[in-house]
TrEMBL record:
The lineage of its organism: Bacteria, Pseudomonadati, Pseudomonadota, Alphaproteobacteria, Rhodobacterales. Its EC number is 1.11.2.4. It comes from Wenxinia marina DSM 24838. It comes from the Bacteria. This is Cytochrome P450. The keyword Oxidoreductase applies. Belongs to the cytochrome P450 family. InterPro entries: Cyt_P450 (IPR001128), Cyt_P450_sf (IPR036396).
Length: 406
């Protein structure tokens, strides 16, 4: 058992805020190790980059996500009582709801068709657009309709913006984060009312499914539990707008690349490479619920462990020239390989791997199709992401002008 190297800083919280996505990679390189100890927010943490860390977070027994995220990020993202905070039978039972809806069901086709139609009509009616704002707003409209929410809520621009802010503001604590938390509480209250009303109706829509969902012992989910899971469908669909902004940035930087994307399979592998290349979900964290050994590491009970998703996706030991955007890598969300982990890895039914990958890839590919079907010009702008900001986006948001029907 090798001693785990230690980051010499007494507390690395400020370095994490400064270095953002690069925080774990920088130290792994400096220490010549895929694992190191540090202190963050005065708490002992073990950080890992590469497949060993990904396998720990997506497969090892004896871990929980409870207590692993700072409270603001937890409340803006998954929230208490959600699938992501559960383990064991309760987790597998709740997860089934998501995999049935998002992987087994027609969600990817339905959502990507609806998004392509809505976003295309929006862009065709405008002179210019900032892609991250425009695509996220369109995705919010489409997600609300797909979920079965009433048109009044779908047309509420403030509600749609709240869905965007939940993931946009989760990365740090500022006054804007606090405001987003308040807005999230308001959104949850509205969704609780929708769940209560849907209890009398059918289980056909995602809202209906959640209103009729049960715990493993047959008890129905209460209004608050169902509303939290409804947000777990709506919020991340809207967050795909960030990937769409990165996809548009690649097309804007290299307009000739559009010629190779006429075929749906080419748009799919383009979308997969967008997921690998773009800085989005930086790290995932867990806490050990008992002492455990994992691939040569001895971890005590209560140990905070953090796996570096972005660093694993950009590790030159694992990827050929990872800084290059190359759809020819032909990546596929269906793989269980721990190195391709933009939304987690491993077995989706029994680990915390994201159930939304199929939907995400279909939505990015649909966005590419929309962008290729319209005429536009990308003026000079800074398309590079600021890696100290979590979540990152192209600095300009990807601005397109002179939008027109081709
Ligand atoms: C926008 C692109 C997305 C990214 C970057 C992303 C990323 C992630 C990551 C990294 C996890 C694992 C968290 C952990 O291990 O603790 C996760 C879990 C989850 N994601 Fe996504 N996701 C995205 C899209 C989606 C979509 C479209 C949906 C649903 C419509 C979704 C629903 C969920 C849910 C419910 C979980 C919790 C799963 C569990 O705990 O078992 N995500 N996501």
């Amino acid at each position: 058992m090798r001693e785990i190297p230690r980051d010499p800083s007494p507390d690395a919280t400020l370095a994490l805020l400064r270095e953002g996505y690069r925080f774990i990679s920088n130290r792994c390189e400096r220490l010549g190790s895929d694992v190191f100890r540090t202190r963050l927010m005065l708490r002992s943490a073990i950080c890992l980059r590469g497949p060993r860390g990904v396998r720990l977070l997506y497969g090892a027994e004896g871990l929980t996500r409870q207590g692993a995220l700072p409270p603001t990020a937890l409340h803006l993202l998954q929230d208490k009582g959600s699938v992501q905070q559960m383990e064991g039978t309760a987790h597998h039972h709740r997860k089934r709801l998501f995999t049935d809806l998002l992987i087994e069901g027609p969600a990817a086709v339905d959502l990507s068709r609806a998004f392509a139609a809505d976003w295309r009509a929006t862009l065709a009616g405008e002179d210019e657009a900032i892609v991250i704002d425009s695509a996220s707003d369109s995705l919010a409209r489409v997600a609300c309709r797909w979920a079965g929410l009433p048109e009044g809520l779908t047309q509420d621009a403030r509600f749609r913006r709240t869905l965007f802010l939940m993931s946009a503001k989760a990365g740090r604590f500022t006054p804007a984060t606090a405001a987003s938390l308040l807005r999230r509480r308001g959104a949850e209250a509205r969704l609780r009312r929708e769940v209560a009303e849907a209890r009398g109706g059918s289980a056909e829509t995602p809202l209906g499914r959640l209103a009729h969902a049960t715990h493993p012992d047959g008890r129905p989910l209460d209004d608050a539990e169902a509303a939290v899971e409804l947000l777990n469908l709506l919020r991340p669909i809207v967050a795909v707008g960030r990937y769409v902004a990165f996809a548009a940035a690649h097309l804007a930087a290299d307009p000739a690349s559009g010629a190779s994307l006429a075929d749906p399979e080419a748009r799919r592998t383009f979308a997969e490479e967008v997921r690998r290349h773009s800085p989005f979900f930086p790290f995932v964290a867990g806490v050990t619920t008992r002492a455990l050994s994992h691939e040569g590491l001895d971890l005590p009970k209560g140990q905070w462990v953090i796996a570096d998703l972005w660093g694993t996706l950009h590790d030159a030991a694992l990827w050929d020239r990872p800084q290059l955007f190359r759809p020819s890598r032909a990546l596929d969300w269906r793989t269980a390989e721990p190195v391709f982990c933009p939304q987690g890895a491993g077995d989706v039914g029994t680990t915390h791997r994201c159930p939304g990958e199929k939907v995400t890839v279909a939505l990015i590919a649909a966005a590419v199709e929309v962008l290729l079907s319209l005429g536009w010009h990308a003026p000079p702008q800074d398309l590079s992401p600021d890696l100290s900001r979590i979540p990152a986006a192209p600095r300009s948001g990807t601005r397109l002008v002179r939008l027109h029907e081709d």
